[in-house]
Design goal:
This protein has 353 residues and is of the alpha+beta class. Helix content is 33%, strand content 22%. It contains 8 helices and 15 strands. Strand 3 (100-105) and strand 4 (112-113) form a beta hairpin.
């Protein structure tokens, strides 16, 4: 009788060999050109993440890694040195990819074109190179957010107008969280999956598959320092969670870190508009839409308070939106306060009229 050989460490080896690029191909159940393109794009994003993680791990030792550059970005915000470095990393990594014709970043006023790639490069990478960069100098969590879209037309005028489409046009989205470990979370419309960087292998290895956001969670994440700048509806919601047991405030100042907590534990993240900035602070194409895609794929929701984020069509590359995302029940609760105030205003206007 001939016995079939069974490796004694088969399960462990299979887990350790489930790299990001292999997982993408497996999710698409294809080795066709499109699947190979997405797999190669995700591998490039992973490489950018490794380079940024290495820089962050040595930030206190490397010259010009910390502090401000002394200039402002297109949004009028002070630019940190790590913002510039991370933005340059993504450009450098994708220049030689042959796949990406354009890169659009919240740090750049216009898309960055790679002419040598454009004849065949069919994709655009949109990204926030360092989310929460104010945390870098104090050694707290930061992240990178990304989305991949397919180029529509030739964009001969180099305006990037075809990018002004809803978040439903995203082919892939995700983020890289730089913390005690470096974690890459992504979706290509087949669920949400997390990979952890194994320094000994230099590879992102699958650590959790098909992540689901709990329908309700105990965490609400918002900058309460803006309380008196918010609409009455948001203040009503905050008063509600203050008065009811079972809620905990958690806010790190880095969207990626706060969302990662909610993705795994449930709850809601809010960045509403204020009196001075009614559209909020977060950029639709580089932050809100990618995370909204992830939230929906994980069974959660993302909204402006009146419209699903993935349905919002931007009118410019750096358009901002309010953002409420997380567990379905918690997002719905915030929306209920917004709707109550809306009905009150309509009723008051009817009486006055």
């Amino acid at each position: 009788m001939v016995e079939t050989y069974q490796p004694s460490h088969e399960a462990t080896l299979d887990r350790d060999s489930m790299t990001l690029s292999r997982h993408v191909l497996q999710q698409l159940q294809s080795f066709g050109p499109d699947a190979q393109d997405l797999s190669a794009l995700m591998s490039r994003i992973a490489l950018a993440g490794k380079l940024i993680a290495r820089r962050l791990s040595r930030a206190g030792l490397v010259e010009d890694a910390l502090g401000f550059t002394g200039r402002e970005n297109v949004q009028g915000e002070s630019v940190k040195k790590m913002d510039v470095y991370a933005n340059d990393v993504f450009i450098s990594v994708f220049k030689q990819s042959g796949l990406v014709c354009r890169l659009a970043s919240e740090e750049m006023e216009e898309p960055f074109y790679i002419p040598e790639n454009c004849p065949i490069g069919r994709y655009t990478l949109l990204y926030d190179p360092i989310d929460g960069s104010s945390n870098v100098d104090i050694n707290l969590n930061v992240g990178s957010i990304f989305a991949i879209r397919q180029q529509q037309g030739n964009d001969e005028g180099q305006t990037g107008k075809d990018l002004l489409q809803s978040g439903r046009e995203q082919l892939a989205a995700g983020y890289i969280l730089y913390g005690p470990s470096t974690v890459l979370v992504y979706t290509i419309g087949t669920g949400v999956h997390a990979f952890t960087l194994d320094p000994s292998l230099g590879e992102f290895i699958l650590s959790e598959e098909n992540i689901t956001i709990p329908r309700h969670g105990p965490v609400y994440s918002v900058n309460e320092g803006n309380f008196w700048q918010w609409d009455d509806s948001i203040r009503d919601y905050i008063r509600y969670v203050h008065r009811h047991e079972g809620y905990s405030a958690r806010y790190s100042g880095a969207l990626v870190g706060d969302f990662h907590r909610i993705l795994t534990q449930g709850g809601v993240f809010l960045y509403p508009g204020t009196v001075e900035k009614p559209d909020g602070k977060l950029r639709l194409l580089y932050e809100s839409a990618p995370l909204a895609f992830l939230a929906e794929q994980a069974g959660g929701r993302a909204t402006t308070g009146s419209q699903n984020i993935v349905d919002v069509i931007p009118d410019r590359l750096h358009m901002r939106t309010p953002l409420i995302l997380g567990s379905t029940e918690d997002v719905a609760l915030v929306e209920s306060f917004i709707q109550d105030r809306f009905r009150e205003r309509e009723a008051a206007m009817t009486i006055v009229g």
